[in-house]
Inverse folding.
């Protein structure tokens, strides 16, 4: 069983977890291809392409120009990403056993790295999957990463239950293509709803945190049977069969 999760735009490189040995990202050559393209962009082009402010574009420009493909210790992704989902994941209190399990089962989809494992050492960057900043011969980052990402996931799925628990956003989950995965693979989309004014609604900020919480639940309990995922009960959530389908599991609170 594998989990897919989105990355975070926010990163914090000051909070290094002791006794955690970082790993090398999986696809440095392909990341290098993207960095080469990104270095050709001016600050104005970055602002336009990424739809960000001039101040942010200046920061991103510096990221690309100073990006070093060398391998630095102590910058593990699960600790460095600092978005809402990663508050839910809260890898800061993971044990060695938790990190070992997460490294084998949690796949963070990234526009720059393809797939980031929790212990992979990452650098400051910004490159969402939907951006059309790609080497010549590709139309989108989905085209650029599709074969690589699905080949890696296929290799992982052949070693265990052929199920992907999808807690990634649509923007990132789109790169995972069922037809490119081993025959019989199940992709289960997880949805989180909240009771408000006598109706169940999806509230983005709560759903983002719940994606991290779900990942944490699987990792902390070392789950390998998808059915056990239905036992998720963090922060008042529970599995809700009336709205669930075979490939869409709904949790409410």
């Amino acid at each position: 069983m594998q989990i897919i999760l989105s990355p975070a735009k926010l990163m914090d490189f000051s909070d290094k977890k002791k006794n955690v040995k970082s790993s090398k990202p999986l696809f440095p050559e392909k990341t290098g291809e993207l960095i080469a393209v990104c270095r050709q962009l001016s600050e104005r082009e970055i602002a336009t392409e990424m739809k960000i402010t001039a101040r942010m574009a200046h920061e991103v420009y510096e990221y690309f120009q100073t990006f070093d493909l060398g391998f630095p210790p102590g910058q593990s992704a699960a600790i460095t990403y600092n978005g809402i989902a990663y508050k839910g994941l809260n890898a800061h209190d993971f044990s060695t056993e938790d990190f070992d399990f997460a490294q084998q089962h949690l796949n963070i989809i990234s526009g720059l790295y393809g797939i980031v494992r929790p212990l992979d050492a990452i650098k400051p960057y910004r490159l969402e999957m939907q951006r059309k900043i790609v080497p010549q011969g590709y139309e989108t980052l989905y085209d650029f990463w599709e074969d690589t990402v699905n080949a890696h996931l296929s290799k992982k799925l052949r070693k265990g239950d052929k199920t992907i628990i999808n807690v990634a956003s649509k923007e990132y989950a789109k790169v995972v293509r069922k037809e490119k995965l081993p025959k019989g693979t199940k992709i289960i989309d997880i949805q989180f709803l909240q009771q408000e004014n006598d109706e169940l609604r999806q509230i983005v900020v709560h759903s983002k945190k719940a994606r991290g919480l779900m990942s944490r639940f699987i990792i902390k309990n070392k789950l390998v049977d998808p059915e056990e995922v239905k036992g998720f009960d963090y922060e008042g959530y529970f599995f809700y069969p009336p709205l669930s389908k075979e490939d869409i599991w709904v949790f409410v609170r």
